[in-house]
Amino acid sequence: xxxxxxxxxxxxxxxxxxxxxxxxxxxxxxxxxxxxxxxxxxxxxxxxxxxxxxxxxxxxxxxxxxxxxxxxxxxxxxxxxxxxxxxxxxxxxxxxxxxxxxxxxxxxxxxxxxxxxxxxxxxxxxxxxxxxxxxxxxxxxxxxxxxxxxxxxxxxxxxxxxxxxxxxxxxxxxxxxxxxxxxxxxxxxxxxxxxxxxxxxxxxxxxxxxxxxxxxxxxxxxxxxxxxxxxxxxxxxxxxxxxxxxxxxxxxxxxxxxxx
Length: 260
Hints:
The protein has about 260 residues and is mostly helical. Helix 5 packs across helix 6 (about 100-110). It has 14 helices and no strands. The radius of gyration is 25 Å and the shape is globular. About 45% of the residues lie in helices and about 0% in strands. It folds into 2 domains: about 10-40; about 55-80 and about 125-255, no CATH class.
């Protein structure tokens, strides 16, 4: 009786098993890559807005304090979006005929929010956490966590984009080892943690080339803080700050801290 299978059949069978076993692994890996890509997370992807607001122009070139527009960032969970009246404080005097600002002028004239006055879909939230996540801006500012730690080099963004992906793993890096993210500006030890957060932008204004700034401050201002590795001395200083600022590390790691 003749041979039923060609000798190549063994090789084909082995290859089929390898491919079959690899497919689930490749599918999981591919899903992970897609899930963490900017296509899904929107990190580093500028979002279109009814009005093309430039943080670089307002915060860096004009030196406007973050808190002028984000009025509640120091005292509530939500940083706050400036109302039309805040925008018109300046734009009733400058760029009064700019077509780009027509939605703002219509909103001011009608008293309706920009999304209704302009006919556009409204402001697109750049950073938004799920409803099951509790986040409070004020406590982070009070403990001295820089805006740029979470938002990237926002003062350099012409059109705002998301600086971090805000996964639970990413948040827990700080909640587990806050000593790596806390620091004191040794040139201004008189500042409170809150004051230090906003004074960082003043320092950049005074020294645009950042020659007098520390490596940590440069990393924060340039959006490269994720790659910054604090020295042993900085970590020890951070541990002291945990005590001084009454930060309860174990409590930070409890599920209910963020999921209430």
